Automatic annotation (TrEMBL):
<protein>
    <submittedName>
        <fullName>Lymphocyte antigen 6 complex locus protein G6c</fullName>
    </submittedName>
</protein>
<dbReference type="GO" id="GO:0032991">
    <property type="term" value="C:protein-containing complex"/>
</dbReference>
<dbReference type="GO" id="GO:0009897">
    <property type="term" value="C:external side of plasma membrane"/>
</dbReference>
<feature type="signal peptide">
    <location>
        <begin position="1"/>
        <end position="18"/>
    </location>
</feature>
<keyword id="KW-0732">Signal</keyword>
<dbReference type="Pfam" id="PF00021">
    <property type="entry name" value="UPAR_LY6"/>
</dbReference>
<dbReference type="InterPro" id="IPR039237">
    <property type="entry name" value="LY6G6C"/>
</dbReference>
<dbReference type="InterPro" id="IPR016054">
    <property type="entry name" value="LY6_UPA_recep-like"/>
</dbReference>
<feature type="domain" description="UPAR/Ly6">
    <location>
        <begin position="19"/>
        <end position="100"/>
    </location>
</feature>
Amino acid sequence: MKGLLLLVLASLFCGLSAQIRCHSCYKVPVLGCIDRQSCLLEYGQKCLTTKVYLGKMWLYSSLRCGTEKEPCQEAFNQTNHKLGLTYNTTCCNMDSCNSPAPRPTPGLALIFLTSLAGLGLWLLH
């Protein structure tokens, strides 16, 4: 009887953990998440967010589901000395816990891209 109860509880736990979703995208300044999707978390894995910095300036973040081949391993201030980049990775295992900030308004992205185009034209002139 105890074995049956353990089997039922284990199947419920596996069923619940199989429903955890993570966000998956590359998040860049001003534009926010590019190619935003969600992924279903594998049993025993965690959602992850890796933030990449050049010095103290944030360049981008990578959000995704950890997998058996690439599990989430928290790490802080990992440095690539050749490129001068610093990586910080955090892990979490709740539904949508690596949620990116809300999508920026299209107007903000349009202003940014128009400004870049104007700067490019000014530099060419």
